Amino acid sequence: MLDTFLQNLLNAMQWGSFYSLIALGYTLVYGVLRLINFAHGDIVMVGAYIAFFISSALLGKYGMPQVMPGWAVLALTIPLTMVLTSLVGVTIERIAYRPLRRKGAHRLYVVITALMAGLVLENGNLLLLGASRKKFPEMIDKVVYKFGAIYVTNLKVGVILTSILSFIVLHFIITRTKVGMAMRAISYDKFAIPLMGIPVDVVIVFTFVLGSAMAGLAGILFALSYPILDPYMGMSIGWKAFIAAVVGGIGDIRGAFVGGFILGIIEISVVAVFPSSYRDLIAFSILLVILTLKPTGLFGVPHTTKI
Amino acid sequence: MKRLCVPILLFLLLSLLMGLAYFEVIDLYIQTIILFMGINIITSTSLNLVNGNMGEFSCGHAGFIAVGAYVSSVLSVALFTKSKIFGAPLLPPELAAYGFPFVLICGGIASALTGLLIAIPSFRTRDDYLAIITIAANYIIITAIINIDKIGGARGFMGMKRVIFAMEECAEIPWMVLWVFVFTVLTVIIIRRYMTSTYGKGVEAIRQDEVAAEIMSVNTNRIKLVTFMISSGLAGIAGGLYAHAVGYVNPKSFDILKSTEALVMVYLGGMGSITGSILSAVIFTLLLELLRPLQIIKWVAIPLLLIIIMQFRPEGIMGHRELSDIFPKLKKFYKFK
Amino acid sequence: MSLLEIKDLTQLFSGLCAVSELNLSLDERELVGLIGPNGAGKTTVFNIVSGYYQPSQGDIRFQGQSLAGLKPHKVSALGISRTFQNIRLWKEMSVLDNILVAQHYNLGYGLGGLFFRTPRYLKREKDIRHHAMELLEIFKIDKYAEEKPSNLPYGMQRKVEIVRALSADPKLLLLDEPAAGLQATDVSELIELIRWVFEQFDLTIWMIEHQMKVVMSLCSRISVIDFGRLIATGTPEEIQQNHEVIKAYLGDDQI
Q1: Does B325 touch chain C (CB under 8 A)?
Q2: Of A118, B11, B185, C236, which is least surrounded by CB within 10 A?
Q3: Domain coordinates of chain A in residue numbers?
Q4: Spatial contact of A17 and A224, defined as CB atoms under 8 Å apart
């Protein structure tokens, strides 16, 4: 009994890690711009594909000689993917969101543009690479550790540790560095900040870099755990991560991190008890109940209007 | 004369459409496109009420469409046709033609009640939290339908074509063209009447300054509730029409993507503009059909096109205006309330 | 019987005491001022009276009825209307629509009437519109009826806001710093306007104001609060002489 519980908890932590990493990206952008970046889930997908191409190339799939062992490939793929994915995120910001912001468009028009950008990424991928699914290469051998009746793979441990580590790094950046302070400042008052001589656009670009890098990381980890890639893989996991971010209290990275794990735990426990087709039904109902009881999310502070 | 102008125009348009369809000048394909236009007009104008006029951000409109589609389909199949699931018709099939609007309205009421359930938690939350609640509701409704095996689960539900046949037993006319037209016009009238009344202007007041609205005696919670229910109820009617126009429904066709389509139509038309929503629904439907030969390229081209349109008109086609605001002379010719 | 009676009113904001044990009462047909240094809790008092905050302690009675637990729209339906420190008109609606919406407390028709355009609905809409136009005419701003408030000069917006508050037929009108941001000439006009409103309408006016010229020339009675406490109340002359008040405004060592 305890064994199944621990085993499930471990699985839940793994799923929670994906959700957390993606939710962190959502919440970063939202915290600074009040923009629901609906393209974020698809940036995760792009990240997974970028990782696929880089690792395949390094493993000698495209006629290049393989010069390094698998772990070195992985070690090189992760940073490269994060950099390239953040380039994608920043590009979308530059060509689609920023002009709208400059024109003073209603906030929700930017959200719709984000939705459209997500669709372009999904279907563009389908158009370029075709409908066949891609098999993500295995870079490191799977190692199974056995504790009593519980099986732990090195991958699981890696995923969970990576997400915790990235949260700590992000938290450090947000609370301890100058650019993090600027990010928080913009979310408080976007009119006063440019007057204080803070380069708002640079800070926003930095936010997108951070958020998309997290998405890229999530993409690799997801692809390592579930090595079948398809263009729509980011969509549903993205929407769910957004919901997790809100349940945690959107705009607060602690909220996103915790919310992601909560969603993971709820989903796995639902599946443990009910048929899996009930997963979304029950998981979302629970989230709605949480939101009804705590409307600003777990870490959100109620926003009062001053009159 | 001014008062009669619009009804006469509408009547002529309806007769023209019915005549063209009856004498098979326009084939079934074009008829379907016209049906979709009407259904999309209902979808976009009803969502516009919440997202445009009230300034909330509801992202799960397809959930309500699904409820309306399923409730009215199940009702009409059970009432008017012989089916494997429900057995013999509960009412004589000859009544189908008269019973159909009531079935549709039942679907609308079911959707409105679903809307009520979702509107209640939205009181305590502001703007983007409603987005989440509605997205989650959309997921919940879809998975709930998938898990009800009796109505087909993930396979979908069919048999509505037989309802149409039953109606055609009565009179051999293009019934769906008639019903879609009638309900589209009704929807626009309902929304127009609502928004031009002092009561409905409270909705605008909520969007512009909710605190001031509440303090100046507007019962904001009730108005939010009523507006949300009207919006979701009309979406339910759109769903019922869609189900009967296509002949079968499938939970997949009401997922988040469908909600996205509705959102696109609202924001493309311009928040809060009824004529904008109508215009964008027509344009959007045409665009989908015209680009059909491009196949998968279509799904890249349309979002790209929309991104580009947004860059040039960041407030939608009409902005927050109606056609009569742009061409004030039009007011001389019609009075439509 | 007094129109408004505030008893032991206390408002805490997460430990911070914004209003503490305030006792105050207003009679019918009075023009009363509420003054105090910045952050003294004046607007908080107004917010509690209009139902926007629920007080931590104490009770407010309006015409003998307790306001406890009433939502703002109910309070305004009872006859308490107000304006705001920084004008809160609905900026994208016409001036006329602004006035119309403020009569929501008394629409007198239901949704059925609305959708079917029953004679009752049409009559009520006509009456509401008529009432609004009448008010606009009285205040000589009917020519701006179709204009959006954001296109009007600031002083005119203040006036529209007062008209909007009056359109709900209040027994008690709360004016929150009506002279804030006005030029000197506009201020004298505003004083005349308020005096005229007080004479024309059967109501009590309670106003917060920083400009002493306005308060001293209009109010028959003034209450002063500092750090959420009532420190003095009396006629303008008495307040001007009051040591507590001078201390609150200028500090201890000035005396």
Answers
A1: no
A2: B11
A3: 24-228, 232-307
A4: no
B193 touches chain C (CB under 8 A): yes
| Candidates C50, C72, C101; nearest CB to B202 | C101
Determine whether the interchain pair C109/B217 forms a contact, defined as Cβ–Cβ distance below 8 Å: no
Question: CB neighbours of B89 closer than 8 A, spacing ≥ 6?
Answer: B78, B79, B80, B81, B82
- How high is the ipTM of this complex? 0.91
Q: How far apart are CA A62 and CA C129, in angstroms?
A: 76
Predicted confidence band at B335 (pLDDT cuts at 50, 70, 90)? low
By the 10 Å C-beta count (0-12 exposed, 13-18 middle, 19+ buried), B6 is classed as middle
**Angstrom distance (rounded) from CA B139 to CA B122:** 17
Instruction: Take residue C202 and report the two structure tokens written for it.
Output: 């059967």
Q: How many whole angstroms separate alpha carbon A248 and alpha carbon A254?
A: 8
Query: Which of A266, A261, A251 is CA-nearest to residue A297?
Result: A251
Closest residue in A to C46 (Cα) is: A307
Rg from Cα positions in chain B? 20
Q: Map out the domains of chain B as residue ranges.
A: 13-254
**Tens place of pLDDT for every residue, chain C, 255 residues?**
689 999 999 999 888 889 999 999 999 999 999 999 888 889 999 999 999 999 999 999 999 999 999 999 999 999 999 999 999 999 999 999 999 999 999 898 999 999 999 999 999 999 999 999 999 999 999 999 999 999 999 999 999 999 999 999 999 999 999 998 888 888 999 999 999 999 999 999 999 998 888 999 999 999 999 998 999 999 999 998 888 888 888 777 655
Nearest CA distance, C132 vs chain A (angstrom): 25
Per DSSP, which regions of chain C are E strands?
4-13, 16-26, 31-35, 57-62, 65-66, 80-82, 172-176, 204-208, 221-226, 229-234
Name the residue with tokens 């009702």. Answer: B75
* Cβ contact, residue pair B220, C73, below 8 Å: yes
For residues B34 and B27, give the distance between their C-alpha atoms in angstroms, rounded to a whole number: 11
What residue ranges do the domains of chain C occupy?
1-26+49-78, 80-174+198-205
Report how far residue C27's alpha carbon sits from residue A124's, in angstroms, rounded to the nearest whole number.
72
Collapsed DSSP state (helix, strand, coil) of residue A278: helix
| Bridge partners of residue C208, in order along the sequence | C34, C176
Which of chain C's residues have a Cβ under 8 Å away from the Cβ of B218? 73, 101, 104
**Residue where the block lists tokens 């909520």:** B206
Interface of C with B (CB under 8 A): 50-52, 71-73, 76-77, 81-82, 84, 88-93, 97, 100-105, 107, 109, 111, 114-115, 117, 121, 125, 128, 164-165, 168
The number of C-alpha atoms within 13 Å of C68 and in the hemisphere containing its C-beta is: 10
Mean pLDDT score across all residues of chain B: 89
Beta-ladder partners of C65: C62
Are the beta carbons of B93 and B80 closer than 8 angstroms? yes
C88 vs A contacts (CB less than 8 Å) = 307
Check: CB of residue C207 under 8 Å from CB of residue C238.
no
Sequence-separated (6 or more) residues with CB below 8 Å from residue A221? A17, A18, A21, A158, A159, A162, A163
C39 touches chain A (CB under 8 A): no
Burial zone of B210 (CB within 10 Å; 0-12 exposed, 13-18 middle, 19+ buried)? middle
**CATH no. of C80-174+198-205:** 3.40.50.300
Residue to substitute from B186, B187, B215, interface C, most C β-carbons within 10 A = B215
Q: Which of C89, C104, C115 sits opposite B217 (nearest CB)?
A: C104
- Put simply, the answer to whether A291 touches B57 (Cβ < 8 Å) is no
Q: Cα distance from B210 to chain A (closest Cα, Å)?
A: 10
Distance from CA of C5 to the nearest CA of B (A): 20
